[in-house]
Write a structure and sequence with these properties.
Blueprint lengths: L33 H8 L6 H5 L3 E2 L5 E3 L3 E3 L2 H9 L9 E6 L2 E2 L10 E5 L7 H18 L4 E3 L16 E5 L7 E2 L11 E4 L10 H12 L6 H4 L11 E3 L26 H11 L15 E2 L4 E3 L2 E4 L5 E5 L5 E9 L2 E9 L1 H4 L6 E4 L5 E4 L5 E4 L9 E4 L5 E4 L5 E4 L6
Parallel strand pairs: 6-7, 6-8, 8-10
Antiparallel strand pairs: 1-2, 2-3, 4-5, 4-11, 9-10, 12-21, 13-18, 14-15, 15-16, 16-17, 18-19, 19-20, 21-22, 22-23
The structure holds zinc ion.
């Protein structure tokens, strides 16, 4: 998060080769309000040089724009600038491209170990406690684990490979705290905290819960509202849930429309459960074979099942929409036509899984087991979902009676 700061000192490209640009030296502790920053950080339509003039540089050589958004190198900065163009329509996750969320892909989120530098001195215990609260908040209902390794505190820096990241103090930085994003290498994985974070109107545990949200790939929620710093951030994001002013990823200032700030909202938990998994609700047992989803089976995000002739498939997309797709052979390959979907009911919500329940009801739940959509066919134990070769999706009772269908036969 940014500390409401003085107007950034221009950082000209020629200066970027320097090891350290002390762009915020002497930044006042009682700075201007975020509203003032809003006027100075609006960079929609800016040239790259104008964008660079708002960029700060940390003592470890990394660049920081928009308060607390890190960039590893000049190439990262260039990408950030290139993505500054406005985005139409669509908790908020970073994206590598329009189809791929920027999340940890190899299970790193299950052991996000960290040390807390002894250099915090008298403030260290407060940092340890707040990190513990922040990590526990994310890990309580979600399949992510932040693990404190106190034995590494005496050597807690970005070179220490015995931990996934370090939590270190920084002085003369233009923010109260900042973190890193998925995909960053060890040397770039530091949560920096300034002494001002201990005296902020935003409680320290809330600040660090927000920063740990960035480490999971989350972007600022105010990107959705256009408030605050929204126009100065790249638009490579997607909304995992509907806009949530109470998200921990908003800033809890009126200028930013924030209403939360101290703890995770329901949308925060539902959104991250789609990305990484939930402790509240197990992923569905994946249906196998073709043409049928039996009672007790289902589809998780990104999974699909084909009709037995291979000319239709039922997909629960990575973004949580259930859709029926017709595969049309052509002279040069295939084209695909969506014949039915739950998008109108579930679009924008953090769908987590599609479950063909033992009671006969077909349900899409969030990771907090909140039903987003269902077929109202409960009370018929043993019913199955059939994806027929004619393109119709039908729930049949054990006696073979059709209970529900998409009406897409013959399409
Ligand atoms: Zn932030």
């Amino acid at each position: 998060m940014p500390r409401p700061m003085k107007k950034p000192t221009p950082l000209v490209p020629a200066a970027l080769a320097m090891t350290l640009v002390c762009s915020a030296c002497g930044a006042p502790d009682a700075p201007e309000s975020p509203r003032d920053d809003l006027a100075t950080t609006s960079r929609r339509g800016a040239t790259f040089e104008e964008f660079l003039s708002t960029v700060q540089r940390d003592s470890n050589g990394q660049y920081v724009y928009d308060g607390d958004m890190p960039a590893r190198d000049m190439a990262d900065l260039r990408r950030a600038w290139e993505q500054l163009s406005p985005k139409d329509g669509a908790l908020t996750v970073d994206q590598l491209n329009a189809a791929l969320d920027n999340t940890w892909k190899n299970g790193e989120q299950l052991n996000l170990s960290y040390c807390v530098s002894n250099d915090f001195g008298a403030n260290k215990q407060a940092i340890v406690n707040a990190m513990s609260s922040a990590g526990a908040a994310w890990g309580a209902q979600l399949l992510v684990n932040f693990v404190y390794v106190a034995a590494q505190d005496a050597n807690c820096n970005s070179q220490n490979t015995n931990v996934f990241f370090d939590v270190s103090p920084i002085v003369n930085a233009p923010y109260t705290a900042r973190a890193f994003m998925p995909g960053y290498a060890r040397a770039q994985r530091t949560v920096f905290i300034t002494s001002s974070a201990l005296n902020s109107s935003w409680p320290l545990a809330g600040i660090l819960t927000h920063e740990l949200g960035h480490t999971l790939g989350l972007r600022h929620e105010f990107l959705r509202s256009g408030m605050c710093y929204a126009s100065s951030e790249p638009q490579n994001w997607r909304g995992v849930t509907p806009y949530d002013p109470g998200s921990i990823m908003n800033y809890p200032y009126p200028e930013c429309g924030g209403t939360g700030g101290t703890s995770l909202s329901q949308s925060d938990v539902e959104g991250v459960s789609q990305l990484y998994g939930s402790r509240v609700l197990a992923r569905p047992v994946t249906a196998t074979g073709c043409g049928e989803i039996a009672a007790g089976k289902g589809l998780g995000v990104g999974e699909l099942i084909y009709s037995c002739d291979g000319l239709h498939y039922l997909s629960f997309t990575a973004f949580g929409v259930l859709q029926l797709v017709k595969v049309i052979p052509t002279s040069s390959g295939y084209t695909y036509q969506t014949t039915w979907s739950t998008a109108a009911s579930t679009s924008g919500q953090a769908g987590y899984g599609m479950y063909m329940q033992g009671d006969g009801n077909l349900v899409i739940y969030t990771g907090l087991m909140r039903p987003l959509w269902h077929t109202y066919t409960g009370g018929r134990p043993g019913s199955t979902l059939q994806l027929q070769n004619d393109g119709n999706l039908v729930i049949y009772s054990p006696q073979g009676q059709p209970l529900w269908n998409t009406g897409t036969g013959g399409q």
